[in-house]
Amino acid sequence: MLNVEMKAEENKTLSKNRWLVIVLIVALIVGSSCYLLGKSQGASKYIKEQELNIALNKCELEALGDIEGPIYVTGHKSPDTDTVGSCIAYAALLQKLGYDAKPVVLGRINNESRYVLEKANIEEPELLEDAGGCNMVLVDHSEFEQSADGLSDATVIAIIDHHSDGSVKTGNRLIYDARPLGSTATIIWMRYRNYGIEIDKDTALAMIGSIYSDTEALSNDTTTFADEEAVKALSKIAGFSDLDTFWKEMHEAALSYEGMTDEEIFHNDYKEYECAGVHYGIGVIKASDKETAMDIADRMDEAMASAKRSSGMDMVFAQIRYDVGDNTYTYLLPSDEEALEVLKAGFGDTWEFDGKGYLTSPGVSRKSVVVPVITEVLNQFPHE
Ligand SMILES: [Mn+2]
Fold first, then answer.
1. Whole-number pLDDT of residue 174
2. For residue 351, what pLDDT is reported?
3. Range of the domain at 145
4. CB of 204 closer than 8 Å to CB of 102
């Protein structure tokens, strides 16, 4: 009797446990399928968001209508590393969007850019002789004087720049993205982000080179939070962390003027401007120290005179930059008496004149100090 009762009790517990297991399994199945369903819904929502993002950003290109023939992406004449990296990066973005885009340059690329491209395993962009009849995207400049020959007969479809608004006028609707950031490559990084499109490993390294070159490894006064974040993100993509060595080697490459004539050195990082009817050019030359800077200065007299003659400029300036400790100083030289008058009016009260040129306080860049001051002087004293 007792045994029978015990057996019945055991059976009861067993069937109770069985039910518990069944309920648990069902709960598990329902729970996990809800989770998976939610996840897949989240994923598809994400994909939809991405598609919307790309569609929204692509509007600006599609609104330009059918673009026939290739799109050439170019930076300025006397290409620097920002110009080179930016034309490569922006052409790559357009390619990823399905456009026939090609990076091009308007002259010999400098030794610093050459080093960066070698490191990134990227071929040098081809030279564009004449932009007449081409579809053009201008990066890192918006001045006619600095752009491709034949540009007035081209269709400019976009300008991506971080300088002041320049003289290029198109008369047609275009994409115009100008932001006062440290480099054009930073603006392009943000445009990739807006699209949600991934940057290639090699392109990422070239873009770091661009940002480092223009901001002097994120140290000069034009550097912004965006430039810093861009370098962080790009070095992750490039799988590249030894940025200090990279910068050191870029700098060494930039300072080696081996095999270059004085005039080529003057034109290495040279830009032309126009203000109040005055056409002028400024060549920036980097030197390792003050002594080298003074040696280069001696060689620039004849180089500036011949550059002025051959370019038809009213005046040219050589801006020689050299480091003392962590600071970068500028030695600013005029091509002639008239150019000296402009420097005297702009900088006479603040900088030291050594009988030949002006020695400045640290951190003076062509873009943020020299050009704005010369512009102010030329606007105040119109050229006759
Ligand atoms: Mn730039």
1. 96
2. 92
3. 71-254
4. no
